[in-house]
Amino acid sequence: MVLHRLAPDVIDEDNRWWGVWTLVAGVTLGLSGAALSAVLMRAFTSLLSTFGIELSLPTLLVLALVIGQYVAFGGLAVAYLRFRGLSVGSVGLRTPSLREFAI
Length: 103
Hints:
Radius of gyration: 18 Å
Largest sheet: none
Keywords: Membrane, Transmembrane, Transmembrane helix
Distance between the termini: 35 Å
Number of domains: 1
Number of strands: 0
Structural class: mainly alpha
Order of helices and strands: HHH
Shape: extended
Number of helices: 3
Helix content: 55-70%
């Protein structure tokens, strides 16, 4: 029985704590992503203000979305997969079709 394919060295059939490990890893990655996003956003806005560039609130929101979702969380996910010895291709992600994207 395969319990979890992302942590094969931690999980076996006799290990009753695999659910706790999964929960702790997920919460840690989520909180780390949020913290990394805040740090990167603060650093980027400080760099811009050093050059005298002030951004409007809508621009800051879009920038926070891009930095948070793609750079911080995406980078953290790739780093975690590499730490586990897996590639991004092992997750089974694919580019959505135009129909799936529209839905």
